[in-house]
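Fill in residues.
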């Protein structure tokens, strides 16, 4: 069993235990993911890569996460590598984004939403060409990160929650972390 597989298995067990505990306590019915948990989730679903405009291969990886509870959003930065397909020239750097989260009932997943680029820095780019980078950053955010799945609930986790009449509901960013409210099944 690899380290990554072990971490995923432990995460699933912890989530199942948390769902059961939340349901049995009658009090708080909220699952909380810390900044570190969110960074691990991003890392597990990465690296994000996609071909853009058939000329650019983009890879985004190594996330950091910061809670922004005042706007119910998260802020992340990633290493980025963009390779132009014809010349095979690769530019590397860092992209910083801010985004909201939503629960996708149909896919049983927490997704990024309303991704906004705060900064895009590419190494070894002349000052004259930096003005066009903002457009590249927006293209990356819209095509690569907006609506990306951060966490998909496991069927066993959902079955545990449903067994006590609950299902995942709203997602909020608070000073404690990302909170997923467990709502009654009939809502």
């Amino acid at each position: 069993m690899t380290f990554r597989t072990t971490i995923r298995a432990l995460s699933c067990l912890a989530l199942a235990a948390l769902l059961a505990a939340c349901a049995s306590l009658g009090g708080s019915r909220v699952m909380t993911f810390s900044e570190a948990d969110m960074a691990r989730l991003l890392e597990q679903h990465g690296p994000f890569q996609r071909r853009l405009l058939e000329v650019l291969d983009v890879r985004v990886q190594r996330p950091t996460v910061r809670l922004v509870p005042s706007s119910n959003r998260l802020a992340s930065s990633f290493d980025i590598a963009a390779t132009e397909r014809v010349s095979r020239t690769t530019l590397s750097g860092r992209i910083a984004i801010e985004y909201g989260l939503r629960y996708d009932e149909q896919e049983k997943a927490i997704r990024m939403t309303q991704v906004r680029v705060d900064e895009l820095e590419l190494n070894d780019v002349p000052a004259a060409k930096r003005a066009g980078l903002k457009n590249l950053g927006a293209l990356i955010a819209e095509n690569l990160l907006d609506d990306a799945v951060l966490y998909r609930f496991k069927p066993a986790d959902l079955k545990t929650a449903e067994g006590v009449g609950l299902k995942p509901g709203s997602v909020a960013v608070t000073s404690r972390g990302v909170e997923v409210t467990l709502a009654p099944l009939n809502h």
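The chain has four helices and nine strands.
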